[in-house]
């Protein structure tokens, strides 16, 4: 168990700001899941077909971020 913890912590200290997920392309690393999703959506043609659809996609991503923050609050209360 200690080894797993050590490997886990080593992996995290090697990432930007010690967080995951991390996207690495051509030896360059970046983090922040929403930014990574927007980048990949643009790269693979998964964006909306107009500005309004892009806005709706961003709103959904931001809503998921809100949900994740709520989950953390609930876990702290328990
Ligand atoms: N805003 C970041 C949050 C990332 C995040 O909280 N990642 C967690 C794992 S899911 C993490 O790295 N926790 C370790 C830490 O923050 O030290 C994102 O959306 O990518």
Automatic annotation (TrEMBL):
All copies of domain GST N-terminal, residue ranges: 1-48
Annotated GO MF terms: glutathione transferase activity
SUPFAM superfamilies reported in the protein's UniProt record: Thioredoxin-like (SSF52833)
EC number: 2.5.1.18
Key word Transferase present: yes
Keywords: Transferase
InterPro entries membership: Glutathione_S-Trfase_N, GST_superfamily, Thioredoxin-like_sf
Superkingdom, natural source: Eukaryota
Catalytic activity as recorded in UniProt: RX + glutathione = an S-substituted glutathione + a halide anion + H(+)
GO biological process: glutathione metabolic process
Principal EC category: transferase
Membership in a protein family: Belongs to the GST superfamily. Sigma family.
Protein name as it appears in the record: glutathione transferase
């Amino acid at each position: 168990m200690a080894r797993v913890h050590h490997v886990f912590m080593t992996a995290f200290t090697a990432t930007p700001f010690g967080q995951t997920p991390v996207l690495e392309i051509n030896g360059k690393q970046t983090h922040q899941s929403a930014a990574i999703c927007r980048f990949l959506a643009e790269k693979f043609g998964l964006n909306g077909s107009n500005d309004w659809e892009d806005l709706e996609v961003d709103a959904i991503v931001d809503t998921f971020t809100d949900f994740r923050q709520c989950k953390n609050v609930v876990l702290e209360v328990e």
